[in-house]
Specification:
458 residues; Aldehyde Dehydrogenase, Chain A, domain 1; Aldehyde Dehydrogenase, Chain A, domain 2; 2 domains; 7-stranded mixed sheet; 6-stranded mixed sheet; 42% helix; globular
């Protein structure tokens, strides 16, 4: 895939970039290693000062940066602006909390291990490679970069090839904020070059957000090198609605949960599992609200849904829908590719799904929702857990016992009750099964790329 900005609204190539050759990749790895030696010797207070400055730069440049994201991958401008500001919030969060999260853990009773002092301390690992996707070009990176740099690590970024301008923006952000030169460097390389970078002895770990095949490949390389890996992969998150739920609120949130970021989010609700008692009401409301969305130019503030980021992604989504319809699925709204320039797909709601349809087991990465009618909570959980994914989930109920039952029964990295899944700096984020392993954000996220060193003193 060429390293280029191709505007998904028009299909036009805006800018193309030459990949870094082997010499430039070597130079950047060496720079990141030298920066690590310098950064690990600094105090948390110094790192926090630099991180806060980086957050301020993001905010100062929010409008231009948001426009860049919209042009590169089609995100509605209001959502692009929100993404930039969320990144700044995350950076401030880690600037404020990193020292507490990584404080030495002192054993209260060292005599229990025949010591006068016993503790554990968190130390940085070194250079960490980040392999990141295009759907949240800044947020996916910053939620790794902020804790990594605050811990004293440095980062190398292999970004998706269709968001090179976002990648190059991040290449300079931390330098401009005062971090040692090379603390965070972008590598303009293709997917085939990732393994050789990860195999470099100076690179100590890897984090990847992306597809399941990409995760398997990177995990295999990391395993062969005995290097730490954190993987955040695909999702097919269930959104369960029970009779006691507020159906109007649930259907309104269902639309937002499905089409945010043009439906291109791993943690988007994708499978809507509704109790038979409220199924017809929910389906009618959901379909009407999906049909009312404005599809158009993402630079327009009134646009709800813009284009998919790539032509291939739009075509794959259409194939999943066509396969389901050919096998009997019912289209409640949408289900078509608009006759216009760009890589658009109409917000779509499908019912009457059967297990032999690809859409039931595969991730639909776009504004397509599937609807299931269930007789009871046991059937709801069976459908929710039947895919190989386990990223997040959402349950709508006003029954406290039912809520507790679902929290225990759902196979997922998170359960959101009466709300849509959102990644917050304050909460650990990650999945199970084919959705990956390891955690980002909160205290767990900053500790992933640290050595927990035990200290014992006689």
């Amino acid at each position: 895939m060429a390293i280029a900005t191709i505007n998904p609204t028009t299909g036009e190539t805006i800018a193309a970039f030459e990949p870094h050759d082997a010499a430039e990749v070597e130079r950047r790895i060496a720079e990141a290693q030298a920066a690590y030696v310098a950064l690990r010797a600094t105090t948390f207070a110094q790192r926090a000062e630099w991180m806060l400055r980086a957050a301020a730069l993001l905010e100062e440049e929010a409008e231009a940066t948001a426009h860049m994201l919209t042009v590169e991958m089609g995100k509605p401008i209001a959502q692009a602006r929100a993404e930039v500001l969320k990144c700044a919030k995350n950076m401030r969060y880690y600037a404020q909390h990193a020292e507490t999260f990584l404080a030495d853990e002192i054993l209260d009773d060292p005599a229990a291990v025949t010591a006068s002092h016993a503790s554990a301390r968190y130390e940085p690992l070194g250079v960490v490679l980040a392999v990141m996707p295009w759907n949240y070009p800044l947020w996916q990176v910053i939620r790794f970069a902020a804790p990594a740099l605050m811990a004293g690590n440095t980062g190398l970024l292999k970004h998706a090839s269709n968001v090179p301008q976002a990648a190059l923006y991040l290449d300079t952000l931390f330098d401009r904020a005062g971090f040692p030169a090379g603390s965070f460097r972008t590598l303009l390389i293709g997917a085939r070059e990732v393994a050789s970078v990860l195999e470099d002895r100076r690179v100590k770990a890897v984090t990847l957000t992306g597809s399941e095949p990409a995760g398997r490949s990177v995990a295999a390389t990391a395993g062969s090198q005995i290097k730490k890996a954190v993987l955040e992969l695909g999702g097919s998150d269930p959104f369960i609605v029970m009779p006691s739920a507020d159906i109007d609120a649930a259907s309104t949130t269902a639309v937002k949960a499905r089409v945010a970021n043009n439906g291109q989010s791993c943690i988007a609700a994708k499978r809507f599992i509704v109790h038979a008692e409220v199924y017809d009401t929910f389906a009618q409301m959901f379909a009407a609200k999906m049909a009312a969305l404005t599809v158009g130019d993402p630079r327009d503030e009134s646009t709800d849904v813009g284009p998919l980021a790539t032509e291939g992604g739009r075509n794959e989504l259409a194939e999943l829908v066509d396969d389901a319809v050919s096998q009997g699925a019912t289209i409640l709204t949408g289900g078509a590719t608009p006759d216009r320039r760009g890589w658009f797909y109409t917000p779509t709601l499908l019912a009457d799904l059967t297990d032999d349809m690809r859409l039931v087991m595969e991730e639909a990465f776009g504004p397509v929702a599937t609807l299931y009618k269930v007789a009871d909570r046991e059937e709801a959980v069976r459908i929710a857990n039947q895919t190989t994914f386990g990223l997040s989930s959402s349950v709508w109920t006003a029954d406290a016992d039912e809520e507790a039952w679902f929290v225990r029964a759902l196979d997922a990295g998170a359960v959101f009750v009466n709300g849509m899944t959102v990644s917050y700096p304050e909460l650990p984020f990650g999945g199970i099964k084919d959705s990956g392993y390891g955690r980002e954000l909160a205290a767990a996220g900053i500790r992933e790329f640290c050595n927990l060193k035990t200290v014992w003193k006689a």
